[in-house]
Amino acid sequence: MKFIIFISSVQKEFKNERAALKNYIYGDALLSKFFEVFLFEDLPALDRQADEVYLEEVRGCNIYLGLFGEQYGVEDREGMSPTHKEFLLATQLGKPRFIFVKGENDSTRHPKMTALLKLAGEQLIRRRFSDQSELHSAVYASLVHHLFGSGQILTGPFDATICRNAQIDDISEDKIRWFLTRAKNARDYALAETTPVVDVLTHFNLLEQGKPNHAAILLFGLKSQRFLITSEVKCLHFHGTQKLKPIPSYQIYKGTVFDLVDQATDFVMSKLNRSVGTRALGPQAPVEYDIPQEVVAEGIVNAVAHRNYTSNASVEIMLFSDRLEIWNPGTLPPSLTIESLKKIHSSQPANPLIAEPLFLAKYIEKVGTGTVDMYDQCRKAGMKPPEFRLDNGFFILTIWRKKTSKKPAGVKSAPSRHQVGTKLALSEHQVEILKKCSAEAGITELMQVVGRSDRTKFRNQILTPIIKADLLEMTIPDKPQSSKQRYRLTKKGADYIKKHSAKE
What whole-number distance in Å separates Cα of residue 416 and Cα of residue 428? Predict the structure, then answer.
């Protein structure tokens, strides 16, 4: 059962604050589990007087949340505003009342609002706020205090709570070994790659009462979506600017948070336009996409790292002809605003136990510069700045694709996948693997080249197609799973790399 919050009132003064507050509550991982919000604006047209409707909703609510400002509101025949009548009824019925007052200066308020504030102050504690961020922080503190006081919550954050029915056997040792190798190379992390699984989980606070918590399953689970179904990522590609069926390309990716970031980034990069320059400025021909890969990866990893994992929705990544949209179930921390994302801000991960390993594997930074870097990368690429917005429980990032109406001299357009014969199109990662295999290389080494974490998916998605295309071969073909297995270019693969390099 959820608590119903009645947010006053019908005053135009707080129209934007009420809508934003509802989005904030529905987007928060904790609050959305326990609260539903009633806004008068959400009601359809009814053949009843407005005051009858909202007073009826006050009677049916569990919590009255009052927003008091400068204005008193439209007065009825008795000289009383809707906000005043709501407060009196909530008081009469013994409802929990949380009152939030905008501004510090009471001298400019309507006299009747001043009187209402005095009445409220005699009965309960009022909290003041000056902007949306302060209001969200104050509401969050009050609602969480109510949950603890009513005995509804007795545990910590979602990612730190035990994952129901999960056992140590549901953790992948291979994924942990990959992570420790990556962390050592990326951050010079000291934990040995041979550290036992239980010790690694204990070290990162991923065990609760000897069982994996949600963060452990999301980071290193054999089948993460078996326990957290909506942790998958949905990727869609549309040729136009609208979300219309049929969808040309639609993929649902599953796996750990590392897998989700890698797979979703690959999907987007494979669909973007790509241009190859000349070697006029150096030995390597420059390659540019209409959205820089750093921007794509930053947007995706932020969505996966900071999303609300209690939501029934999944992260949705939609590529249109003019933009990339990343829809993330969740919202901003109470102390951050959309405007604050344009400048360096404090790092406030929604899922701190997930954020730490992502940082050590160098998927994210912990200094609050990710969104600022996105702005800088877009500016340097001559693109419109990214846009952020909150909409009905989702935090939405829009990245505008770079317009390429005219190509500079010496620059040619190219698809983001490289054709081999008529059947196989190689991804950028597959091309990188072929280049690496000019000398023999093992699978762990190859996975690190392209930043992959899931060995099985790496084989199926990257290695197997180019082996079947006779571009790559195993040094021990009779034992594909051998720990001594290595990979090398075939003659056809070497010819492909030679021609590919010449084209660049």
Answer: 7
Helix or strand or coil: residue 394? strand
Looking at the domain that runs over 417-503, which CATH code has it been given? Answer: 1.10.10.10
Using DSSP's 3-state secondary structure scheme, residue 57 falls into: helix
pLDDT in tens, 5-53: 888 765 677 888 888 999 999 998 889 989 999 887 776 655 556 667 7
Q: What is the mean pLDDT of residues 159-179?
A: 92
Where are the chain's structural domains?
3-149, 159-227, 234-347+357-400, 417-503
- Comparing C-alpha atoms, which of 298, 316, 314, 399 is closest to residue 358? 298
Q: For residue 337, which amino acid is it? A: T
Integer Cα distance of 124 and 63 in angstroms = 14
Q: What is the rounded CA–CA span in Å between residue 210 and residue 232?
A: 26
Residue in the structure block whose two tokens are 């550290």 = 195
| Interatomic CA distance for residues 358 and 352, integer angstroms | 10
Domain 234-347+357-400 has CATH 1.10.150.170: no
Class of domain 3-149: alpha beta
Q: Is 246 exposed, middle or buried (0-12, 13-18, 19+ CB in 10 A)?
A: exposed
User: Which of 170, 481, 220, 155 lies closest to 358, judged by CA?
Assistant: 220
In one-letter notation, the amino acid at residue 276 is: V
Quote the pLDDT of residue 422.
39
Q: Parallel, antiparallel, or unpaired for β 126-129 and 97-102?
A: parallel
| pLDDT score of 6 | 83
**In which region does residue 132 sit, left (phi positive, over 0), alpha (psi from -120 to 50) or beta (all else)?**
alpha
- Other CB atoms within a 10 A radius of the CB of residue 479 amount to 11
The string of pLDDT tens digits covering residues 384-397 is 999 998 887 789 99
Half-sphere exposure of 427 (CA within 13 A, CB side): 19
For the stretch 427-454, pLDDT in tens is: 778 888 998 988 898 988 888 888 777 7
